[in-house]
Design goal:
Elements lengths: L6 E3 L1 H9 L3 E4 L3 H6 L1 E2 L3 E2 L5 H7 L6 E4 L5 H11 L5 E4 L2 H8 L4 E2 L2
Parallel strand pairs: 1-6, 2-4, 2-5, 5-6
Antiparallel strand pairs: 3-7
Length: 108
Amino acid sequence: MTDLPFKRIDCHQALTLIEEGAVVADIRDEASFERGHITDARYLSNHNLQQFIEENDLDTPLLVCCYHGNSSQSAAAFLAERGFEQVYSIDGGYEAWQAQFPDRCERP
């Protein structure tokens, strides 16, 4: 079995990376993102993907978040293939994050 181009991490590991300056990309649909997301996360869709890649430092750790940690794995692999050097998929996604860190979520 070959190594994946990204790592799966839990919410506590993600928090540590965020505190160290990692970028969070949220790939859920826009309405879900607007209802709540990890503090300072950036909404990422097919429409702003190229701009996101161009505007972010490829050496900065990148955390990918979805609903439950499934879709984020393929997105993390895709972003690693586009040159991001340290890419992580958050296990449990936003659902796990908001359950563990409700004070680290932005909501309207």
